[in-house]
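Q: Putative GMC oxidoreductase, please. Structure only.
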Amino acid sequence: MKNEPVDVLIVGAGASGAAIAWSLLETRMRILCLEQGPHLADKDFPSRDDDYELSRFGKFSCDPNVRGLKQDYPINADDSCIMPVNFNAVGGSTINFLGHWPRMKPSDFKTKTLDGVADDWPVDYATLSPFYDMNDQTTGVSGLAGNPAYPKYSPPLPPIPIGKLGQTLAKGFNEMGWHWWPSDVSILSEDYDGRQKCVNAGTCDLGCAAGAKGGTNFTYWPMLENAGVELRTECRVREITVDQDTGMATGVIYHGSDGQVHEQKAELVIVACNGVGTPRLLLNSKSKIFPDGLANRSGMVGKNLMFHPLTGVTGVFDEPMKGHEGPMACSILSQEFYETDATRGFVRGYGLHSGRSTTPMTYALGGFGIDNPIPWGDEHRDVMDNVYPYIAGLTVVAEDLPEEHNCVTLDPNLTDSDGISAPKITYRLGENSRKILKHGEERAKEILLAAGANKVLSKGDDAVWWRAGWHQMGTCRMGDDPSRSVVNGWGRSHDVKNLFIVDGSIFVTAGAVNPTSTIQALALYVGDSIKTNIETLFD
Ligand SMILES: Cc1cc2nc3c(=O)[nH]c(=O)nc-3n(C[C@H](O)[C@H](O)[C@H](O)COP(=O)(O)OP(=O)(O)OC[C@H]3O[C@@H](n4cnc5c(N)ncnc54)[C@H](O)[C@@H]3O)c2cc1C
Ligand code: SF4
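A: Structure for Putative GMC oxidoreductase:
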């Protein structure tokens, strides 16, 4: 079935797809976004249901293999110590993300120059800075200006309260003389732009029914749809098509909500399917001139997959920490150990995030991403009465380095509900990341004890959290060298001049911060570059 051609076709309505659509609005080009998931309504979010916690282990699990919904695609992660997690709907993974919103730091864009590892990005912090600000304004970000770990900027809203838990941990950092700051979050501390402020229910991963969290279903998409951007939901793109003579993208083939296969022509194709979905789509788009997958003459599509490997340490205190009250996003963040210090025996570093606790059943069944259920019987009772209310934890968020053997490929046997090949993840924890986690774990114990914990609990078995592949980066990296990168410094494919990529797959390095603020700033920057170069876009 053929559809009327459009100027711009965006695949994926998550964090990055929404941001670039917003940037391109002013061009008055006809913009269409194809999204494999549905547009969820208030009633679809389980956070107001009595059995909301159960949904974390079923239809609202962050693990697509557990959800197994029609719009999901399975992921074979048998050969990985970390499972990539996501959400597939309008809003993408910002539906179930926690809204923790740190920016990358200036050094993150120059690791080759500063530390001799990985590669420098073709853009730097100063270039992205106005796009971070613009995105913060649109999204509604709460935080405290003046963080000495960053060049000067001001979040538009005051910080959310750090709570008893944050105050307690801050005391520990102060005792050690180490940096901490209230976290930036894309959660409204005040009513903003017609949206309601956070009501502190603490169910943020279940799709914030209040609309206080910065999911693009609440931020960008209402504006975009009002402005005439067409959003076609439950439409899964099977492949991007290419003119075999000119090598230009011509559009896509997709499976529509009507059960039919459609052809959609477009002048410009923008891929925003995330660090796993994007390489999957490109690898599925094989043709005579791109036998190894679209835009893959470098062989880099799918390579250099980076996560943020995590571990955590929990302190048990004498007083209740009220850890499950308030939004789940980190309350305070320390970047004391973020930059390279040669005496530590590893390069780059990590952040220490004060994770709030989860709700009781989730804690009992293994926590959020941890998968370490507490025992049944008397011990269960003891932990729920005497440990759970008194805990405050620190999460070590490590910077992963790009390694080519960590990759997304196509699984030869596994397919989604439309019969399209599913991704396979191959990922080993690098030696540098392992050392970072060990170092972080030791420092976290020191902080918790300094904060007054009577006991610290850590897994201590070198294991990273399994269901914690929240951040997927690097699989279609940016770069100036077409033999070592997939897109150029402003997101355009080296091989296909009307094909752009805007999600976390274009990251060159991972930093040690949650990526979405940077993903969206980059998408806005790519949009701006398209507008600036519009006359010579395909040269
Ligand atoms: C549980 C959880 C907690 C998180 N917490 C945080 C946090 O606190 N802070 C933070 O910065 N980040 C967090 N993240 C990560 C954050 O959600 C992602 O970084 C961000 O959403 C990625 O944006 P994206 O545009 O690359 O992809 P997504 O937002 O994942 O959007 C991709 C979209 O593309 C669609 N798509 C994919 N393939 C196709 C196809 N073939 N056809 C049509 N549509 C397709 C998908 O359905 C999806 O809607 C979290 C993620 C999870 C899962
Ligand atoms: S705690 Fe705040 S951000 Fe989280 S779900 Fe509730 S209202 Fe939304």
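A: Brief note, in case it's useful. The two ends are 32 Å apart (CA to CA).
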